[in-house]
Amino acid sequence: MSVPLLDLQEQYRPLREDILAAIARVCDSQQFIGGPEIDGLERELAAFVGAPHAVGVSSGTDALLVAFMALGIGAGDEVIAPTFSFFATAGCIVRVGATPKLVDIDPMTFNVDPEGVARALSPRTRAIVPVHLYGLCANMDRIGAIAASAAVPIVEDAAQAIGACHHGRQAGTMGAVGCFSFFPSKNLGAFGDGGFVTTADERLAREMRLLRNHGADPKYFHQRVGGNFRLDALQAAVLRVKLPHLQRWTDMRRANADRYDRLLAEAGLSQSAGGPVVVPSRPAGSTHIFNQYVIRVPGRDVVRERLTANGIGTEIYYPVPFHLQECFSTLGYRKGDFPEAERAAAEVLALPIYGELRPEQQAEVVEALARAID
After folding, report:
1. What is the pLDDT of residue 1?
2. pLDDT of 250-261, one tens digit each?
3. Phi-psi category of 18—alpha, beta or left, where left has phi over 0 and alpha has psi -120 to 50?
4. What is the pLDDT of residue 139?
5. Domain holding 220: CATH number?
6. 217 and 249 co-located in one domain
7. DSSP E strands: which ranges in the chain?
8. 63 & 135 share domain
9. Where in the sequence is the domain holding 331, given as residue range(s)?
10. pTM metric for this prediction
11. Which pLDDT belongs to residue 222?
């Protein structure tokens, strides 16, 4: 049995008529930029996340970019971020002219090490960017205390974490700004790129709305040099159909993660059963939404080749930490500077976890993994 890493058709089929009707509604209105679909989605997202303000933007990358711009971060500033994440986390810091101050990760959660954040603080620090990787919130109690003591704002990279919680607080509501992605593989995915930002600060919300539209208000009168970071109405209409199903889809992912934990233990593969596989960490007080189910396994590349040969879809999130990327060579980091991130990059492997994944497909994944490790 072949098992894909992600099957979006399974999610789309039962919603097809509602989605096509929503798209037709926008087409009939001929209002593709701004308008009631954007306004409605922003209200609904703010209510779901529990944030006073939600601002739709063109991608998760642009969510980070507009947040940094709104905070006035630029040349000469430093922004603390983990070295292990999707490229946009560090790339957007550089794009506004600032310098990424990279930090190693916690080996159990893959999230940024709070003590590394504390050590990285300097007089030039203008923001801290914890990444809620794979759908698990970073240790925001400790990071929040560090940020507060230094009077530095937090920009949460919650691109993979919509609906995740840390001690009752939702991802995207624990910093100055939360940044989210609607990339199709996310728990709430659009039909292309899209994203949004959240904040409790009315001034920041107003600034980000301004910046996403070339800094113009009113039209053709530009208060800032912004960009074209708008979310389009077609994507908003699709997302409004999908948003009411998000909690159920996330519950399905969490149930699939529970099943993987059990199957891997029963097969003697997980470390709890004496095997070599490290299953995802679930710290007390945190709600993991499992945008990805990422294991650690020695000999990862050989294991992945064998899984691929058996029709099992996998992915490596992420094979090269930022400090070893060619484009960041001028930052002066070297191999060995962040050993936990480097070890994770050599061992992590994402297994299929989408909500519609069937129990027999998961059993096939685990059986194939056992054969690949043997």
Report:
1. 87
2. 999 999 999 999
3. alpha
4. 98
5. 3.40.640.10
6. no
7. 53-57, 78-82, 99-103, 125-128, 155-157, 165-166, 169-170, 177-181, 195-199, 286-287, 293-296, 348-351
8. yes
9. 245-373
10. 0.97
11. 97
